[in-house]
Amino acid sequence: MSRKHRHRENKVKKMHTIIGGYEKVLEDLGTIEQVRSVITGVISPHKSEQEEMTFQYFTDSGLKLLAKTTEAIQEIFIVCEDGDKQRVLDELRTRGHLKEKVKKMKKGKSKGSNKQQNAQQRDPLDNYRVGKNDMPKEKGTTLKDLLNPEMLKQLQEKSSEMKAQERAQEDQRRQAEVTRREKEQKELDNNFEYLLNNSKQDWKQYK
User: Fold this and answer.
1) Domain limits at 41?
2) What is the structure's pLDDT at 134?
3) Residue 88 shares a structural domain with residue 159
4) Is residue 122 part of a domain?
5) 43, 67, 69, 154: which could form a disulfide with 20 (CB 3.0–4.6 Å)?
6) CA dist 3 to 18, 113, 155, 159, Å?
7) CA 199, 205, 207 angle in degrees (round to 5)?
8) pTM score, two decimals?
9) What's the confidence (pLDDT) of residue 152?
10) Are 63 and 78 in contact (CB under 8 A)?
């Protein structure tokens, strides 16, 4: 059950409702020598799997904690001198008020032993695949591999036929271009004015 307070007892300044059974905990926080005051903050409707108090971060005036229950979460602010922040945090940990998740490093195992253990735990098929890593990789299956010989032969013949047609069409286009240019040149050769201009003679002589 939560209790509503709007006053101060010792160093605990009760600005909001105190959730769960944290009243005794807050009073204990106020007994820390470096703590100037403990202020209860806003209550959030978010829930926690279990009741615990966690450190969130340092503020300009001290520390911010979160008091968590299975019904709600409440902000707790601890006011202290700037130089005492870390000392207060250490004292909270010493008194067992904070629950923190710390990942422990495994000791006594080298990388070599880990690799050997992993190799022993692999099944035979995995070991076979590891052994094949040094071998050249095979090419992926293509459409050519899926066709039967007869169909593949037909496609190759069709491809050759299409290439021959393309070459013939290209030859026809080149020949047509050559013919067009020869025709234009012949017409120019029969043009008296064109011949006169190219000869650089005075056309007035022919009037």
Assistant:
1) 8-94
2) 46
3) no
4) no
5) 69
6) 6, 57, 87, 89
7) 120
8) 0.43
9) 78
10) yes
Q: What is the pLDDT of residue 162?
A: 92
Per run of 10 residues, the mean pLDDT along the chain (length 207 residues) is: 48 62 82 87 82 88 88 88 90 84 48 58 48 50 68 85 91 91 79 64 54
- One-letter amino acid identity for 50? Q
In a domain, 112, yes or no: no
What pLDDT does 27 receive?
Answer: 86
Structural domain includes residue 139: no
Residue 113 counted as domain residue: no
Residue 7: the pLDDT is: 47
Q: Which two tokens stand for residue 138?
A: 């095979």
Residue corresponding to tokens 């904690």: 65
Q: How far apart are CA 9 and CA 12, in angstroms?
A: 5
Where does a domain end: 55, 72, 94?
A: 94
| Sign for the pseudo-dihedral over CA of 164, 166, 172, 175 | negative
What domain count does the chain have?
2
Residues 82 and 152 in one domain: no
* Residues β-bridged to residue 63: 58, 78
**Do you know the residue count of the chain?**
207
The Cα angle at residue 180 between residues 178 and 181, in degrees rounded to 5: 65
**pLDDT value of residue 103:** 43
Domain boundary pick from 61, 94, 127: 94
